[in-house]
Design brief:
By secondary structure, the chain is α+β, with helices and mostly antiparallel strands. The chain contains two helices and five strands, in the order αβββαββ. The chain binds guanosine-5'-monophosphate (5GP) and zinc ion.
């Protein structure tokens, strides 16, 4: 997808600090971390937002959730705890229009909701 920042990261055109990669998924450290541990997990297929999840591509999203425990363990927060956050659309503050899940760990202080 032209002009998509995360597609450029997948293609290696923009460097990133990778924490996990396989044929379908890439996870890398957020450039502006909002928690002591902050990774962004993306499918390698361009899906613009949660609004674009369909029966055809939902397996990619399921695949991300299957790998979240692996990534959390790699980042050292599997046992201490973490949040998975998806921002969809303007009101939620989505800035990159390639679906992604924030993995946020290393914080304490309870729930956000
Ligand atoms: P959103 O605001 O769309 O939920 O999340 C986009 C995230 O991508 C933000 O947390 C932002 O800091 C991160 N980000 C934006 N540009 C880059 C970049 O070039 N490299 C990395 N690693 N993260 C980025
Ligand atoms: Zn993209």
């Amino acid at each position: 997808m032209e002009d998509c920042l995360f597609c450029k990261i997948i293609a290696g055109e923009i460097p990133s600090s990778k924490v996990y990669e396989d044929d379908d998924i890439l996870a890398f450290r957020d450039i502006e971390p909002q928690a002591p541990v902050h990774a962004v997990i993306i499918p390698k297929t361009h899906i613009a937002s949660a609004n674009e999840i369909t029966a055809e591509n939902s397996g990619l999203i399921a695949g991300i959730f299957e790998k979240i425990p692996v990534i959390a363990r790699e980042l050292g927060v599997a046992d201490s705890g973490y949040r998975i956050v998806n921002n969809c659309g303007a009101d939620a503050g989505q800035t990159v229009k390639h679906i992604h899940f924030h993995l946020l760990g290393g914080t304490t202080g309870g729930k956000l909701y």
